[in-house]
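Progress report, Aim 2. The chain analyzed during this reporting quarter is listed below.
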Amino acid sequence: MTHSVRLRRPACAVAAATAVLLAGGATTGAAAPAPRAAVAAPDIAVADVKADLAQLQSIATANGGNRAHGRAGYQASLTSVQNKLKAAGFTTTVQQFTASGRTGYNLVADWPGGDANRVIMAGAHLDSVTAGPGINDNGSGSAALLEVALAVSRTGYQPAKHLRFAWWGAEELGMVGSRNYVSGLSTTNRAKIKGYLNFDMIGSPNPGYFVYDDDPTIEKTLKDYYTGLGIATEPETEGDGRSDHAPFKNAGIPVGGVFSGAEYIKTSAQAAKWGGTAGVAFDRCYHSSCDTSANIDDTALNRNADAMAYAVWTLSA
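Predicted structure tokens for the chain:
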């Protein structure tokens, strides 16, 4: 997540209800088609997410200690994620842009099928700051997103809506990659995106459980998941306008997401509700060299990865 100005995220209107398929050319008196059966989201194994994080840590260690925009560590991170997606049957596209005199890249992966006029998109930024490997910020969101995408392939999921996943470059420079992507969309293609889900910092070591309070349907979908776990959430305010949902919001595209906290301090009330340590930042290693694979709370990572899968499955059905 970038240190940037804060904006309010927009409301969106993505239908979370199960789609009903209407048969064309039906004769009078023909039986109405049955509603499309809901498919439960799979469990996302936290061990798999952690393995991806370990790989990102190894990439950073081998490339000057970071995975920042325009650096070898970022390119290696992108190649690693892209190779796994291609092997799983995704159609991948690498979008190039320039920021701060360096070449940057977005990785976009489309799952074949679904209504191309109704797109559900989920994204996370793949770059770190130059100060460290960025394992919570935002290896956590990137790795969980990868495992959700791989679960789509592994389960042979065939949603009614079209699924698109994205790993953004240069978020730490002001959401440059996602802004480049959105600005390059035609008016028609922007209108096709019925919801964008953002996942930035979901494994903070002193975690909170924050849900973006934008679109009522997306917000309710995510809150319902945590309610099922007996976890009370709070509206996400720390990251307003500071991550890749902002360009989508500014273009009038519905947004939502979850967040586990950055440099804000956990209050006593929050510690009583969620555990952890009051008076300490949600992530003491935010934008620092200590944001390593040791800077992750496995329980928060596991819950948030599963919440991501639940939202993707529910909103795309």
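Residues 20 and 36 are 6 Å apart (CA to CA). The longest helix spans residues 135-155. These observations will guide the mutagenesis work planned for the next reporting period.
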